[in-house]
Amino acid sequence: MDFSLLNIAILLVLGAIAGVINVLAGGGSNLTLPALMLMGLPADVANASNRVGVFFQALVGVRGFQKHNKLETTEIVPILIPTLVGGVVGAVLASFLPEQWLKPLLLLTMLGMTFLMIIKPSAIVVESGTVAKKVSQSSMGWWSLFFAGIYGGFVQAGVGFVLIAALAGSLNYDLVRANALKLVCTLAFTSVALLVFIWQSQVNWSAGIILGIGAMAGAQVGVKLALNISPQHLKWFLFWMTLFGVIAALTY
């Protein structure tokens, strides 16, 4: 990979943009992954190196939401249990099922999320004053997180949208708190995946760290925007990001 000043600048800028997108919604990797591959990295190395940026972006995002008391720390473990169990199931399925299943599943999920936000906006934006449910109080919430985990373990791309639907739609979290908990799940997913990629020596650390620096800056901006933007504007941002995910799934 050519680490010219131009390529470094592109990675920093795209990392920052992806950091904002991933904190507010999801799908930032639709920008960074193609860029890494266009710069000469093989698909598997690009995928692994991209997780470095995702890891640091999620770390900064979680810390930012926690600092502003928007992270439900008592629910982290109950939320992670079904999500990670589902992630293991999804990873196992991915190892047995043909790779050709990945793109249709990604496309169907993105389309489903787009139509859900048009037909039933309440599934994403809860009414003001609605009390969030604990995972132990909602079997639907547990299973929603479990299936989000399966999807994340199987595909990974777009899992942020599925997690938001589970956290906001099933457990009644507002979008700010749902995004905070989504980032916790993302951090857990990514940490496990990154360890595997490091073990397989697939990470290009130079590219990953440059991307990570940009992603951390973007995550800080994303947290500030999430705290100040209205739920309706955030919902529409989420909508356009899922639509962009559909276009990306059709293109790649």
From TrEMBL:
Q: Where is the signal peptide?
A: none
Q: Where are the transmembrane segments?
A: 76-98, 105-125, 145-168, 180-199, 205-227, 234-251
Where, per UniProt, does this protein localize?
Answer: Cell membrane
The way it spans or sits in the membrane comes to: Multi-pass membrane protein
GO CC terms for this protein? plasma membrane
Chief localization class?
A: membrane
List the keywords (alphabetical).
Cell membrane, Membrane, Transmembrane, Transmembrane helix, Transport
Could you say which protein family the record assigns here?
Answer: Belongs to the 4-toluene sulfonate uptake permease (TSUP) (TC 2.A.102) family.
Q: What is this protein called?
A: Probable membrane transporter protein
| Lineage per the UniProt record | Bacteria, Pseudomonadati, Pseudomonadota, Gammaproteobacteria, Alteromonadales
